[in-house]
């Protein structure tokens, strides 16, 4: 499929009702308002296509950008590609999901995430924390730097209440992911959650534990 064909298809799948919902949740124009489920047949047909994903992302259309993340060939994405993507990730669904998913499943996730969390731009910092959430959910514990992760917990403890909303949201998600997928740090996360009054963090981890999924890594973070 070509970019033109896909854009025509996405426009046909768009819904004013879905568009209004997405706009209220921080997705930016332009967009058609396509349900993720309606993108899945397109994703299934294309599977992975490095260049097509980049071309779709470059349209600036939020629906096309989301689809780009689903079909991206993560291993082929360069640092330059990911830096370009994160700078343009103004919509919440793109900075929270699309860019972090591709980064976490590629070759430069940790390196770029540690850079992005220091960014002044809140959408880039948010993408950094979201990428870290993906990494701890995917990688075996022996491939993670537990000392560095503990340092990030301390950083969150001292900065979460003064961080921008989107960054704070993704810090919380990082705490949940770390507590749920890195069992060596579960107690540390729960202790810290009490200190910062992060009730939802503790509750989310308990739900995962009750399902018997504590420490069970994901095969993919994309959905």
Describe the structure.
With 223 residues, the chain is mainly α. The protein folds into 2 domains: 72 residues, no CATH class; 130 residues. The chain is 67% helix and 0% strand. The protein has 13 helices and no strands. α3 crosses α5. The longest helix is centred in the middle third of the chain and has 17 residues. The mean pLDDT is 97.
Sequence of secondary-structure elements? HHHHHHHHHHHHH
Task: Please indicate the percent range of residues in DSSP E strands (runs of 2 or more).
Answer: under 5%
Cα distance, first to last residue? 21 Å
Please tell me the total number of domains: 2
Short key terms for the protein model shown above:
223 residues; mainly alpha
Topology, element by element:
Blueprint: H1 3-13, H2 16-24, H3 36-46, H4 50-57, H5 62-71, H6 79-87, H7 92-104, H8 109-116, H9 122-138, H10 146-159, H11 165-181, H12 186-195, H13 199-210
Helix pairs in contact: 3-5, 4-5, 5-7, 7-8, 7-9, 8-9, 9-11, 10-12, 11-12, 11-13, 12-13
């Amino acid at each position: 499929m070509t970019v033109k064909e896909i854009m025509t298809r996405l426009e046909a799948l768009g819904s004013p009702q879905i568009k209004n919902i997405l706009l209220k949740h921080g997705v930016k124009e332009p967009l058609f308002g396509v349900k993720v489920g309606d993108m899945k047949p397109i994703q299934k047909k294309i599977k992975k296509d490095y260049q097509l994903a980049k071309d779709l992302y470059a349209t600036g259309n939020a629906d096309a950008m989301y689809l780009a993340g689903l079909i991206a060939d993560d291993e082929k994405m360069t640092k330059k590609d990911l830096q370009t993507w994160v700078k343009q990730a103004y919509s919440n669904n793109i900075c929270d999901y699309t860019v972090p998913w591709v980064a976490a499943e590629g070759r430069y996730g940790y390196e770029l995430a540690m850079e992005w969390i220091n960014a002044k731009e809140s959408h880039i910092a948010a993408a950094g924390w979201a990428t870290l959430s993906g990494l701890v959910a995917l990688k075996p514990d022996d491939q993670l730097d537990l000392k560095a992760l503990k340092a990030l917990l301390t950083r969150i403890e001292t900065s979460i209440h003064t961080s921008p909303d989107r960054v704070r949201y993704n810090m919380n998600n990082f705490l949940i992911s770390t507590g749920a997928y890195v069992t060596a740090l579960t107690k540390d996360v729960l202790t810290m959650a009490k200190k910062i009054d992060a009730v939802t963090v503790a509750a989310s981890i308990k739900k995962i534990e009750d399902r018997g999924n504590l420490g069970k890594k994901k095969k993919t973070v994309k959905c």
